[in-house]
Specification:
Blueprint: E1 3-9, E2 13-19, E3 22-29, E4 41-50, E5 55-59, E6 65-69, E7 77-80, E8 92-99, E9 108-110, E10 114-116, E11 120-124, E12 129-131, H1 138-148, E13 156-160, H2 169-190, E14 197-200, H3 205-214, E15 220-223, H4 226-239, E16 246-249, H5 259-263, H6 265-273, E17 276-278, E18 284-289, E19 293-299, H7 313-335, E20 339-344, H8 351-366, E21 372-377, E22 382-387, H9 394-406
Parallel strand pairs: 1-15, 12-13, 15-16, 19-20
Antiparallel strand pairs: 1-2, 2-3, 4-5, 4-8, 4-14, 5-6, 7-8, 8-9, 10-11, 11-13, 17-18, 18-19, 20-22, 21-22
Helix pairs in contact: 1-2, 7-8
Amino acid sequence: MKKRIVLRREFGIVSALWMDGNVEQLDVDAPPGENGMIGSIHVGRVRNIVKNIKAAFVEVAGGQMCYYSLEQNPLPIFVKAANGKQVCQDDEIVVQITKAGVKTKEPVAESELSLNGRYIVLIRGKKGISFSKKIEDETWKEGAREALQPHLQKDAGIIVRTNAYDAPFSVLEQELRILYEAYGSILKKACYRSGKTLLYAPEPDYLRTLRDTVQSGLDEIVTDDAVLYGQITDYWKQYEAESQVKITLYDSASNAVSLSQVYGVDRRMQEALAERVWLKSGAYLVIQPTEALTVVDVNSGKAIAGKSFKTSIDETFYKLNLEAARETMHQIRLRNLSGIILIDFINMRGREWKDRLMEELKSLAWKDPVRTVVVDMTKLNLVEMTRKKIKQPLHEWVRESQNAAKR
């Protein structure tokens, strides 16, 4: 089974994970240097303290105002301070942008700085070593802990990522040293910078996606953009020289079929923006993102119309719900949906069928690279889920990009 990432430039950088003849995941990232605030670290200037919500508003590079919770950031990093204990107006502090601005909300800034490596996440204020919940091998974890413990520093702990499992401990040690050096360099640089200046910009999102996908068996990277091809090639020479991933520049000018047509990227993009998704059985999903949550409604559609059943009605509905569950998890990943998600499955009377469906859904959620939790099934037979927000949902990004293009 070939696993490729197909990249092209449109209103942003579109990357599609192509597996087994189908697009499994779509991401749209800002071009390098545009709106790439997530993960960036700044010396910010405190412009205002709002006591009733226990928050400050901090201005960072580019004049961007950010929300800073005073309760959730008990250990600010002062560059210039009125008293050095409590954050005050006109103080200068080191902050990292952790969440993008959404509609009327400002981006979120924090003092719990984190630096991501391929295998390790370094977090200021964290104690000791913890591991991804998806690493269950206790013997391996104990070996990794013994290898990494001597390299830990007091003010920043680490999380060992899923990607690290089975990697040589010497490689983990080397990455940890590199992350601590980068962390120390950022704090040292901050001492000589004034407010509203950028200290650190992470690598572009699409390069992080490529880096992380390599560990899960990536075979090829294909793009029809010469600039992207050059950037990826340079990155690979520097950081991924030992990997066997093939990097291909597709020449659209000399081919009758565009790169998007070859891999079906445009078609899948349109499908991922559609409200209705048809299933092979004739049933369908209706996916409706709202301001507060996303609702997925499972409808039997043509699947049972005018048909007789060889099995019980509950078993029939279970099979339809099972198909819907698999497609729902695929669509959630494809569309990059996050936050609260409610799924209204076709009602089944038997408790055993509901339990089997929930077990399958939890198994599917476990396979999602983004943290996804199946909470419960309510008395109204609505399944509650949550998914960590990493990026904007696909539909929001496309809508904002199209609106910006019209202005």
